[in-house]
Amino acid sequence: MFDIPFLRPRLVEKERFLAYYEEIEATRIYSNYGPLNGRFEERVVAEVFDGTGSAVTVHNATVGLMLAISQSKRPQGRYAVMPSFTFAATPLAAEWCGLEPYFLDIEPGNWQLSRAQLEQTVERLGDEIAVVVPYAAFGSAIEMADYDALQRRGIPVVVDAASSFGSTTAENDAHFGKGFGGAVVFSFHATKSFGVGEGGLVYSADRELIRRIRQAGNFGFAGGRASVSQGLNSKMSEYTAAIALAALDQFETAKETRRTIHAWYRHALRQAGLAEQGWAEQETRGLIVPQFIPIRCPDALGNQAVVQLLADRSIEARTYFSPACHQQPQFRSHPRAPLGATEQLAARIVSLPLWEGMDERIVHRIVQALASLGGEANP
Ligand SMILES: *Cc1c(COP(=O)(O)O)cnc(C)c1O
């Protein structure tokens, strides 16, 4: 056990979803896009996306990615172009859709899919590209103009926005993904900023795409009992929808709490002069609801050493996303562009604890521990 664990998920208290549970008992509808799922989807579109577009709940974001890719991909295409610096769920979803992941590098400062490599790859692979799957790294908004342009050229885009629920864009304070014509997939896993246990949501400005995803998520049934598309069961239960509605009721408070902790970190990192020692935060866009604090450690350290040295001080840190996807046995044989920035970051990325209930003293203790590591690493 650590004095300071990496995560201490806190979902909504039972008192807050009890009223929703009672509705389930009254209606005796437990699943199949029931009334609570419907209400949650409507509230998300109205309150989060300002009434623009359409959304469907899913049992988790991995299944959401599978459905979004499967319903968007070009039939003649072969590759799902994506960053290697993402969670294993992204290439796994592509594999389940019969596609081959094609890994690209990230940009060194913002850790997002390399726009230069994407442009070259689109030129080189042409019609062999079935879909492009950028990952909005650690909840940071990405510049969507290039992806809008791809969509207009007929190249479908599915955004892995797993950790972006609640994030806004830099330009106009709108929710990340609002108005996008491709699919945007959010995760509501217990470890994400908006957690319900297991759950997720696919959003798009394209209502027809969401309608097809909803249908595919219910065995491909189109009204009757005959399957008309390569479906599966992705439905979120009404119990989960009850928790999701209660989580939405108090999301503003949760956002504030997480952003306050992030601000403590920034202040403490600056005060301790960690940038001068070679530590670097992600260059982000828009306002994030941080899931944890990702940071790049100095070249002289290396993330495994940092995790060990922090553990010696009873602080639990992790290393998302290291190893990068192309370094994992399941994905090693997939084609890829040169991945220099990804390999650099995968050897240095450290994820620091963030959970609701953390106080400023804990943040100081973590940052002081980081500040003390520089000395130890120098021979
Ligand atoms: C969490 C995560 C997922 C998977 O989400 P689940 O809801 O757990 O299936 C996919 N991609 C990224 C980048 C994630 O962080």
From TrEMBL:
InterPro entries: DegT/StrS_aminotransferase, PyrdxlP-dep_Trfase, PyrdxlP-dep_Trfase_major. Keywords: Aminotransferase, Pyridoxal phosphate, Transferase. It comes from the Bacteria. It holds the Pfam family DegT_DnrJ_EryC1. Transmembrane segments: none annotated. GO terms for molecular function: transaminase activity. Belongs to the DegT/DnrJ/EryC1 family. This is Aminotransferase class I/II-fold pyridoxal phosphate-dependent enzyme.
